[in-house]
Amino acid sequence: MFKIHIEVTQATLTENSFQFFKSIRDQKEAVGSLFQPITGKIPSTFIQLKGTTTPIVGIFYASGVASKSKYITPADVPPQVTIPHVDFSKIGWLSCLELFPNATNIKPDFWED
Hints:
Layout: E1 4-13, H1 15-30, E2 63-72, H2 88-91, H3 96-99
Antiparallel strand pairs: 1-2
């Protein structure tokens, strides 16, 4: 009621990895389409550096993950957004576990007082 913890995680792909997964998705979505390609070709993400040139099939990708968390209090909410208020004087003493769905009385590791 007084503070909410949010966390956003963003994963990144290399351009080659993105194109690889995009081509797989495009082929899956094209099934049954009038414009479905006769044969699908998945781009390789390997680059041959030495030796006799041969086709390479496979995938290699690298990803990064960025994460950020924040606590939101009623002071962070714009005035035009209504925040439900609980009037404890009218309901008496009740546990938060009864008042709020998905409430818990076990403090998570990330929680800061």
